[in-house]
Amino acid sequence: MPGTPEADPRPNGPRSVGRSLWLTLPMALWALLMFSRSLALPGPAPKLAGLIVFLYTTTLFFLMMRTRRTHRWRRIFFVSVGFLFPIGFIWDLVALRGSMSIPIEQMLGGNTPFCFLAIPMMIVPAALTRTLIFPGSILPTAANPHAVGAMVALWLIATLVLGKGWCAYGCFFGGIEEGFAALPRKPRLRHVDPRWRWMPWAVLATTVLLSAAMFEPVYCSWLCPFKAVTEFPEVNSVTSAVQFAIFGALFLGLVVILPLLTKLRTQCAFFCPFGPFQALSNHLSVFDVRVDRSVCTDCVTCRRACPTLVLDERAIERGRAGMSCMKCGACVDACPRGAVRWHIRGTSLSASSETARLLYLFAAWGFATLFGGSIIANSLTKLLGLVF
Amino acid sequence: MTNALGEPLLLGFSSGLACLAACGPILLPWLAATGAGWAGTTTRLAGFLAGRLAGYLGFAVVAWIIGLALPLGGAAGVVLAALVDAALGAVLIVFAVRTTAPVPCVARPVGLRSRWAAGLRSSALGPAALGLLTGLNLCPPFVAAAVRAAELHSLPGALTFFALFFAGTLVWFLPFLGLGALRGLRAVPVVARFTAALVGVYYGGRGVLTLTGVLLHAWHARS
Questions:
Q1: Which is nearest to B198 in space by CA: B15, B16, B26, B60?
Q2: Smallest CA–CA distance from B213 into chain A, residue
Q3: Span A123-134, pLDDT tens digits
């Protein structure tokens, strides 16, 4: 039942500067702790990069506090991570072996960094045969420093707290398409059949089943669009040429062209198998997004703002975002009535949305600073190294 | 006698997990896509297993007639596996594309559906075709069974061995009956049809790529 115009429960106007600074202080100290390590590194480039990232993350968090808005500031940070990650990654690859491609012998030898996208594919073979199908080892060794265990542990901790919020604060790929989606003023392709939202579940099912059958991470071998901007098998056969063509086509289609046409995160919404896998963990997280039906006027502004089509009419009617909600905050910020709210499970819907938002943001931004901030610092160090 | 019966049964049972892993990507989406209940799932699973048994026995006959070494080894084995992959992929893609609701975004209008496609979708014929193709697939447990069966030096012996090997693997397929419990979940058939299409593209592509590789190799060898 739609509500009346008098019912907007949001506090009006921006938060005071003093209170915003007070709320930013813990995050500033956390960022300082993270990037103080760069002071010990030789040369001015890492020190300057550390200082820039400290100021950058702290300023964005301050703006989140001051404006009471989440999505715009989160997006700036997330897009920065998305575009800077490949720069640092490719830089390292070129320095290490002069090319983005990796010979198959080196790949089988475990000389490829572990990526969280492989986690869903590893579970079934590991459970049934105690075999790690990703070329690597659980713990770091002298020959293979890229330990799988560290990334899995980091992902697990973040997942327990944020649920699918990982896709809005932790993923170092999603920022690229979010950046392209932010460019056009209006979408050129407005109607996308909502049944395509089930495609990521199919990609997840396909990759899990085929990885168990073939004993290889099938998504990484054949379907990952981000191989085009990170690392791919050396092109020296028909098979590897086809693989490279698939990576390139998927990247161009899903990460560049479709986001420009639809203003959606199309790779996340319609392809990425990690999204649905992560959505299963959304029930573990205490944070979620609800729609207060007593205030909602069914204007569907929130539906249009959702970058992954998770908040549809059914979800609005039900009063809660679907399980694939990545808690980016776009719908909450867009709602003109304050009906879409941050919420902590087990509390009343009438409890303060802003309190829930603050608690969520301290966890999410703390993780983003640790993970994404390090990525930005690493890439900036390389770029600044060209100057200093 | 006990040994003769027990060995293929045990071989089938011990390698059943590998059979399950090999057949899962094909069977699971096919069964789930129909949205059938317990009875429908059981019928389709029975059709699949019957087709798979036919594939096993057919392979045993062919292997015995033309000699075991030919279909299992060298380029002939690679070509056979690639053809089976391509056929599997084609059947799965036809199933996924030629279906109607609830995936209209990848479907054709009802009037264009062929009787053959309808048969693939709704009866045990489709699962039987898939079972036959997976039965012909040269997965490692299957090759182990074929090698052991060839040592028996008689067609009835080889057929019995393959039939018992098949019986040993059966128990691993019983959990698929649980898919009948998913009836009513509206998303399951949609996801399963998308999955069938993706798995079909994977197998079809793998088959075509392998055949291309064989042809290129042969062309290089001639020139």
A1: B26
A2: A238
A3: 888 877 777 777
